[in-house]
């Protein structure tokens, strides 16, 4: 607290020519004022003006030291706040990326399932088309076989009628016999 006392003593110089004396008991903020000249100093180095200059310089140095410490503290605290904010931002970014990756993986899984279902459904439809084609082929074969049987039957009947030289009875019954 001495630098503050020195600062107060340096800035509060009396206007009446009295000397400002710093209290010796360490009372902060108390300034004693004396009227008249002080006792002559015993040593030339400790002259009132030399002592005041020395006190002023020491007070100025102490003030600069404190200001630089305050500035260093401020920079340190700002740096801590920046680091803390950066760490939180990094954690948020990490959280966001993790969530995005999880959702993208889920989306890919669902897309794969849908593609699999689509492929299975397409295969099922191709199988149904093949079954329909097979059934149609079987029906065509049946109709063709029946047609061939009927043609053979009618060729045989025609050959029989030719050999007997008779006319079929069901043929053009309106011109019948």
UniProtKB/TrEMBL annotation:
This is Remorin C-terminal domain-containing protein. The keyword Coiled coil applies. Belongs to the remorin family. InterPro entries: Remorin_C. It comes from the Eukaryota. Residues 1-54 are annotated as: Disordered. Residues 66-170 form the Remorin C-terminal domain. Keywords: Coiled coil. Residues 100-131 form a coiled coil. The keyword Isomerase does not apply. It comes from Oryza meyeriana var. granulata.
């Amino acid at each position: 607290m001495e630098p503050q006392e020195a600062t107060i003593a340096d800035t509060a110089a009396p206007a009446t020519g009295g000397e400002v004396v710093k209290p010796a008991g360490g009372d902060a903020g108390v300034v004693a004022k004396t009227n008249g000249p002080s006792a002559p100093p015993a040593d030339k180095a400790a002259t009132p003006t030399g002592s005041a200059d020395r006190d002023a310089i020491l007070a100025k140095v102490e003030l600069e030291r404190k200001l630089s410490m305050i500035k260093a503290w401020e920079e340190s605290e700002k740096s801590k706040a920046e680091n803390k904010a950066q760490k939180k931002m990094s954690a948020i970014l990490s959280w966001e990326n993790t969530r995005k990756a999880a959702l993208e993986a889920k989306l890919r899984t669902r897309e794969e399932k849908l593609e699999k279902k689509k492929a299975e459904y397409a295969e099922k439809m191709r199988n149904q088309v093949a079954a329909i084609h097979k059934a149609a082929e079987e029906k065509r074969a049946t109709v063709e076989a029946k047609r061939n049987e009927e043609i053979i039957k009618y060729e045989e009947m025609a050959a029989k009628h030719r050999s007997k030289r008779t006319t079929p009875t069901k043929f053009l019954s309106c011109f019948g016999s």
